[in-house]
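Follow-up to my post from last week.
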Amino acid sequence: MITVVTGPMRSGKSEFIIKLLNSNEFDNKNIRVFYPKIMEKENGFITSSDGSRYKAIPISDIINIYPFVVNTNIVVIDEFQFIDNLNYESRLDFFNFIEYCISNDINLILSGLDLDFRSQGFEIVKEVLCIADKVIKLNSNCDYCDSKLGRRCIRYVNNKVANHNDEVIQMETEDIKYKTACVKCYKKIYR
Ligand SMILES: [Zn+2]
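User reply:
Got it. Predicted complex:
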């Protein structure tokens, strides 16, 4: 079974996953959690905004995942939209891994952003959403108004709204920050 948990930043995706993994449903299951190595600050865990965390393994290439998932029932890959930015020859490797999970009765749970800061879907996420058995979409609060339908990411570079020609994948740093906006506020900012 392929499950996708998606939504913007700070929509509670990791919190949702951690609660799920700690629930009775997953008692006595062999669980492995992974995250892309470029998320350096995670440091061996996936963490949620409410402070909970779950032990996880950083991977730089999906090919390296196989030795870790032998005899595993549940595989979680957090922030899987960053697959595009890893050292893969192509996304085919990722889809080969999905096929491997299906063939070996592994319950695969993928969590990640759906839209980049330009409001365009990450290619890998778009493709996986089409083949998923179950999709859970979460929203965040809008950082600009009181809407609970925050769906879009806005990137700020040195407190200025980023240009849409900038590189798609950039981690949050001192200079680079992200906010979440509802569609109306997003349009006001990018009109
Ligand atoms: Zn808003």
